[in-house]
Each structure stands twice: as structure tokens, then as C-alpha cells.
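ASSEMBLY PREDICTION REQUEST
Request ID: AP-0331
Submitted by: J.K., bench scientist
Number of chains: two
Total residues: 981
Priority: normal
Notes: Please return the full assembly, not individual chains.
Input sequences:
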Amino acid sequence: MAISEPVVVSQSGAADRLARTWAQPRGFWGWFQNVHHTAIGVRFMVTSFIFFLLGGVLAAMMRWQLVRPEHNAIGPDLYNQLFTVHGSTMIFLFAVPMMFQGFGVYVVPHMCGTRNIAFPRLNAFSYYIYVVGALLLWVGLFLKTGADAGWFAYVPLSGPEFTPGKRSDFWAQMITFTEVSALGVAICITTTILRYRAPGMTLNRMPILLWEKLVTSIMVIFAMPSVMVVSSMLLMDRTINTQFFNPSVGGDVLLYQHLFWFFGHPEVYIIFLPATAIVSTVVAVFARRHIFGYVPIVTSVVATGFLGFSVWVHHMFATGLPQMSASFFTAASLMIVIPTAVQFYCWMATIWHGRLQLKLPMLWIFGFFFVFLIGGLSGVMLASVPLDWQVHDTFFVVAHFHYVLIGGALFPMFGGMYFWIPKITGRMMNDRLGKIHFWLFFVGFNLTFFTMHFLGLHGMPRRVYTYTPEMRWGALNLLATIGVVFMTAGILVFIANFFQSKATGRFAGPNPWGAGSLEWATPSPPPHYNFLELPTVNGREALWEAEPNQPIVGGVREDIPEVLVTNTLDSEPEYRDELPGPSIWPFLTAIAVSIAFIWSIFSPWGIAYGAIPVVITLIGWLWPRGHSPSPRVPEPALEARWIR
Amino acid sequence: MIGFSRVPLLAAGVFASYPGDHSILHPAGPQASNIEWLYWVIFWIVFVVYVVVVLGFMRAGARTYTSADEMLPIMKDEAGDRRASWAVGSAITITVLTLFAVLVMSEITGKKVEGETSKNPVTIQVIGHQWWWEVIYPDPQADQTVTTANEIHVPVGKRVVILTNSADVIHSFWAPSINGKRDLLPGYSSAFWLQIDQPGVYHGQCAEFCGLQHAHMGFSIVAEREDAFSQWKAQQLKPAQDPTELVTVHGRDVFLSHACVMCHTIRGTDAGSRLGPDLTHIGSRQMIAAETLPNTPGALAGWIVDPQRIKPGNRMSPNPLQPDDLQALITYLQTLK
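STATUS: Completed
Returned structure:
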């Protein structure tokens, strides 16, 4: 805990020098040059939260249309756009950018005890490319070219014959944008975790959150190419008359489904694993003890990463697969329950043998236990092939995946926000408002989505814009719509709380929760150099296990933006590395790439001509800086000076 | 908390308001019954798991809860860790065994459902269209083949094999009280089985999103006794009755001289296009427009004049007919029993 306040009076100029070295440009153009991970992380979080709100508005509109049988508020054309854009927004523009990119980019370098993320310009580029992709989808919606073939856009419905116009092209290209963004961030995070960890933070001492970010990043690297391939194939079918998915000339509609879900199911874990990372972190802090079962939890996370790639066919049981192959995927889908169960039991044991302080973040985690479990268990039902034949593509499934995604990601996300916002803004959130937010959201969520289980069992397929009174689905749908009111109220309370806390909240101090990981060793909000003195680590919870005279890292230059690179297994110091500073080129490159991508929707030549500005901006980006203040010193010329 | 613990109560209330049999929990044949059995078995397993785990978390929290405002110091509890290892280990073992049991039961049920076959079934080909169902009872002799739409007749207690295909996009054939759903994929044909044990009319609906009118793509399965079924089939095999009255003759002429013939077939007349549903025996069907409207003169008139108002985006164009033409056309169509 004392790490942030150096005992040895460091040269009083050190802080100033670091602040100058790591300063990010200000002003309008400065905003586009900023490459610091805290700024980019916050941007990811704020932007994706805005899209969460927008996606929520679409959901409310859908619920309004379904409030009673034969309600005539919204026609089928708009309704189909609503659920397509809602699903795509929540998955591609909110859940992944928030849970993976936002939280990850912000917190990983802090947790590693370093001064910036690896490849900071690639990281900034990833943000801009994500924003353009997100805007593409939404501008499409406002121009009445909203995607309308569902968030997984099955062919041939999304193909050129059945969705003429540009609707599916906008959707497919949005996928490319967001996945390029996720891939870029995955590379930054993987490198940061493997190479930038503080000395002493061996793999065996890495916080569980870093393990999960690592596994998630690797999953992103393997899963995202699959969906980019399939969305590009769809785009080619639509723009240059390839016939990948045209069954009348031998194209294959199932190929699309395989490629999509090979990404689509790991995607669920790309959203869920960061959430369990938050849970593991928060549970340990508020049970006031080390997490029980570090090794089983880490093993479970890694196992989930592998198993996540072997369950995709359970989205396709109703296509009439041979029983034998379906059985394999049932077994795999049931098997993936085991690592999650292991984590659940470990959390329970941690609370059981700790001292529970039910502060706001922990309240949300308890909400997660109760809510996510319902989704997990209805998932066990869906893993069974015969049951899936019945409830697949019904409101039962809608209920299931909202329990999994809202229960499994949104509840931990709010827990994580109440936990980390004091670090980000430097001020505490209001406890009372936070509790009101929780209860409104909890009640509204269950009201809306629990009823959907019954609708599904009683035959209501998903994605229908209306239904007849004879089906007797009216009462349950009304209940589900009422729940939206509560959820909306809860979210509004949260937003009010956030702005109130930002303006007048109590100051948080560096470590308001007495937490153990390194991000709590810097002031809140952290300065751009993150740590005045780079920390070293003695155990899995760096601050809880710090010695009174815990050494710090010396010898890293303060006059240029330099970080310490350590080796992967034991995080022994290897060499110093100079990170690139602020630059406008990532932004310009993102614009050039965006032009090429969007142009390609309208003409295949867009890729050819669009490549020219991309190359130009890349040359600008990679142009050797004329002066190199210090040639990179190879190890072992740097011996980390252990001060004290 | 609100979750599963209230299920029995809530379920009772909800089921009471569902006198209809359109539910996977009201099976009408062996396939759906087997799945319903599996549903309840797994339901009770996960229900118990839910209660146990939630109680576990509440007990754990209540046991160690402290209302202290300040964050407490970090504790070490190695004895607790050892005890917890045993508890967690046992819980995992139970979890694995339970999952294995679910797997085995699911496999057995799957085999049972797929095993309800027969060497001599009623064969029905269902072809999905945006947004209606073409239903064919194939026969080696072409003139013994019945073609109809949206209303499937089957004999009670006999095994029926459904051969699936799609004319355009992916649809999914689903009647919850009869069997699970099966996707109709363009470019693939597959077969699945069903059997209905009680006479009645069972509702079904497309379950795979298929475009603008996915919501209005229903069908019905009429299960009737063997003799009634044979009678129905014999009737369907006949070509359309020639109109005898003045008004029905006029109706037929309206049909043949307007856009109707571009898409529809009435066997026994010159209308032979297969883009839309076969109307040879339209008068015998309960519903029109893929279960969207009842087959009444009023509904039929509304549908023919402006189908885009009733089912926006569907493939049928509006037909602004003169009132007496429309009247005659409807009278004619109603005679096509």
C-alpha cells in the first residue's frame, strides 16, 4: 500500500519529469493524438455505454410493440431492423467493447504495474475503427437501411436475392470494423500481460483478472477471424457475385452457420470471462481474504477458453444433423458447465471462509450469482438435443441468453463500475442511489425475462413482430414490457449517480476498498505515468502481500516514455523499451481504412483505390522518428536497481 | 430470488390461463411426450441445483456478514481453506455426475424420439415458402399426388414422415405439441417423424426468422381418424368442380382473367402456376394466408383486395376488383371444397 508513496524522497522533480514525458496533448486535435491507455479505455467504456443505452431504447420499442396482441405500433419492416440492430449493438458495440476492450485497456497496464499498454498507437487505432463501425450500423438504421436479417444474419435471407439494397452490407462491414478493433486490442493486451508485468509477478502470481484477460485475448485472436471471413464472404456474395451461400448453384447455407457460430459461441465466453474476472476480483476484496482456489479458477478459465471452441454446433441442432455429431456437442456443452461450476464453488468458499462486507460492488455480484445461475441452468436444458428441438428459436432461448448475458455480464459490469469508477474519476459513487439502481434493475430484469421462459414453452417463436389473441401470450408479454420500465428507471438512477459522484462525490483516495491489485497503488485518478515508481510484486495480491520495504524498480528513464520489459514466465527484468508517444496517424489511418471498408460496400474497387490512402497513412504512422533519444539497451545491460 | 423458487406457484397460475394445447407441455404424440418427460426431469434437477446453490451463497454470506463500514484487514485462514477444498471437491464430483446423468437421459430421449419410425408411414413433403407452407402427399403415380397448403391432414395414431425442403430462405417447421422443430434448409432435404394420438387441430408456426412476415407463417395439423383422412385425401385428389351457377362461372372467369392465375393453381382449369398456394380445394380449408385469417367470405375479400394491409410485405399483390367481380370470385372460391 505504501508503494505509491515512496519512502525514499525521490528527486522532487521526478513526478514533474514523468508528467512532462507522458503528457498527452490537449485541445481538439490533442484528443485525436492521445494514445494513453486510460484515455482510450475510458473512451471505449463511455462509447460502448452510449450504445448500450441506444440498444436499450430499441429493446424498449420492441417490448412496446409486443405489449399486446396485434398491437400496431411498429410495422414488420422497422421491427426487424430493431431486433437486428439491438442484437448487433448489444453484442458487437456494447458487450465486447465494454467487457473486453474497455475494462481491459483501462485496467490491464495498471494491474501489470506498467506505464502504458503495449502498442499504444494500435490501441488508439482500434478505438477509432470501432467507433466508425458502430456509427456505420446506426447511421444505416437512421437512413432506413438498418440491417434486418437478425444479428447472425443467416443466409440466404441476408443474401443478395432476399435482402436487396445495402442493409446486410452495412451489417457485414460493421462486423469487419468491430472485429479489427477487437483483434488490435487483443494483441495489445496479450503483449502487455506477457511482457510488461512488474518484476515478481510471475505467471503463478498473476491476478485472476489478468489470466482471464489473457485467455480472452487469445480467444479473440482465434475466434474473430472466423466471423470476419464469413461476413466478408457474405459481402462478396452481395457485391461481386460470388456464390458461397447460394444453394441453387451449389453454395452452402450451413457453411455460413458453422463459420458464424465457430465465432459466435466463443464470443459468449469473450463476454463472460471478463465478467467472471470482475467477480473473482470483487469477491476476494469484499470477503477480505485471498480468493479460494486460485489454481482451480485459473485452470477453469483456461479450460473454458479451449472448450468454448467446441460447442458451436449446439446453435444448429434443429438443422437435422446426424445424431452422432449432435451428441458430441451436447457432451461438450455440458462439459463447459464444469469450469463455471468450479468457479461458483470457489467464490462460495471464499465468502464462506471470509468476512463478507456487502458493499455496493458486492451487492451486484450477489445479484450475478442469483441471476446468472438461472441462465446457466437453462443452458443445461438447451444443451440437450431433444429439448433444444423444442425450445430453440423461441422466447425460452431469448430468456436464456438474456439471463446469461445480462446476468453474466451486465450485473458484474455494474459491480465492476461501482468498484473501479472511484479509481477512474477519483470519487466515490453514492451508496443509496446504487442500491436503488440495483433493486430496480433486479426486479425489472426478472419481470421481463423470467416470463419469457413461459412464452417459449407455450410456443412463442422469437423475432415475431406480432401475435394473435388466440395464442394467449398477451398477459405474459404485458408483464415483460412492464419490467422494462423498472430497468429503465434503474439505468437512469445509475447515470444520475455517476454525474452526481463526478461533481460532488466523496474523494476516493488511492485505495478505497483496501483491494490488493496494483491499480490501487496509484492515486485516483491515476496520472498519465501511472506509477511514480514502478512497483515490484511479492505475491498474488500485490498490495496485501507487500513487504514494508518492498523494492521498486529503478533505472527506467524518466525523460522519455520508457517501460520495463520482463520475461513471460518469471517476469525477470529483460530490457527497457521506449513506447511511441502521441500521434495523429492512428486516427488518420483509421479514417483511411474506414473509407476503404465503406467504399467496398458500394464498389469492389473501393478496396483497390481505398488501399492507397491506407498505405500513405501507414507510411506516416511507421515513418522512422528522426532521433532516437536512447538506443534500446538490450538486456542484461540494464540491471534493475532494487532501491531499498 | 425471484427466480426458480417461485416456479411451481407461478407455473400453476400461468398454466391455468393456458387452456389451449399449444405448448411443449401439452404433448399430443409420442415424440412430444418423450421430450416433455425429459423436460420435467431436467427441470427438477436444475431446480434442486438452483435452490442448493442459492441457499449456499446466502448461508455463506449470512455466516460471515459484517456491517463494518471501514474495510477490514485481510485475513488468512488455512484451516478454512482445507475444509473448503473438501467441500468444493465433493461439489464438483456431484456436478460432474449430475451432468453425466443429464447427458445419458438426453441421449436416450433423443434416440427414442428419432426411433419412432415405421416401414409404412404416411409421407408428407413440406416445402417452406416466404411466407406459407406447401404441403405435398407424394405418390409414385403422379395423379395420386395431393398438393395443398398450410393445412396438413394426418391420420390419428399413424407414423408420419415429414420430408423437408425450402423454396427460398431457411424456415423451421414447429408444432410444439407434436414434436420439436426442424429447419427447412434450401439445398438440403431431411426427414423427421411425428405421430398424433388424439384427434384435433394442432397449431404450428415458422420458428426460424425468414423475413418480413415471419410472424404470419402458421400452419395447422388436422389429426383425424383413418377413414376421415382417406375421405379427405380422396376429395383433395379430385380436380376442382366445374362451376354450374351463373355467379360461380363468372367467379371462375374473374379468376382466370386477372392476376390470380399468375401465381395460383386450380386443377381442372387453365390456372397452373405454382408460385403461390394451390387453391384447388381452398374452400375446404379452415384458414387462409398461412393461418392469418379465418376462411370466411369477408376475410377472403379483404385479403384479395389488399393483402399488403393484412400481411405487409407478402408476395401477393393487391387486386382492386369491381364489387360484383369480387363477390363472384369469392363465391366461386368457396365452392372449391
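REVIEWER COMMENTS: The first helix of chain B runs from residue 7 to 16.
SIGN-OFF: pending second reviewer
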